[in-house]
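Memo to structure team: turn this sequence into structure tokens by end of day. - J.P.
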Amino acid sequence: MTKVKIMPCLDMKDGRVVKGIHFVDLKDAGDPVKNARLYQKEGADELAMLDIAATLENRKTRLEWVENVSSVIDMPLTVGGGISTLEDIELTLEAGADNVSMNSAAVKRPDLIKEAAEKFGSEHITVAIDGCRNSKMPSGFEVVVAGGTKPVGIDAIQWAKKCEELGAGVILPTSMDGDGTQAGYDLEFTKAISEAVNVPVIASGGAGKLEDFYDAVVEGGATILLAASVFHYRLLGIQQVKEYLRGKGLDVPL
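Reply from structure team:
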């Protein structure tokens, strides 16, 4: 049985953790370093930090945020937002990230995935795929970029397959329809991607209750469970989620 990991996510804007619904209506959710310290103490397996405004503001990820957060944790840190060149990846890894996540830049130039995987190793390259429902797409899901503001006419499931072929080591699909709603992960979207690829898939967008985490594994096929709102607002604790999943027979690290 594959180990199931819990991954809190720090969505960053203006130096603060924020959380919205469907990628908009952002509200403050605290200080990134304080949150990172708490999640380290609570036993999170991995941490994500996504600079959600970088692409929209046409700038790079703020490396000082990466340095500040990575300095207080021991768990693997995945950083995304505004990463569009091999140099960006190198600087982000040097700042303390273990993995980088790319989205808009990979859609714009898919060879970036291949070049990054060859230079840094697939295990350090995550491709984030933001998707929304569109019945005109073969799978029913379309890729959107630029913080969920721009549909690009690419089928999300076909894109996930291509990302794996190019060397992505992890796929991070987020359903815009579920993001921030706490109504449960978009299991249909997660499952479609996990069935299409052989690399680990991170469930993201919409976790609200303990059952959602279990469903993401059993129905969605994910092995890494990302959540933000429920952890930031202390609705659920990381150990609480882990104990619940272990009680359901899943292999979860202590």
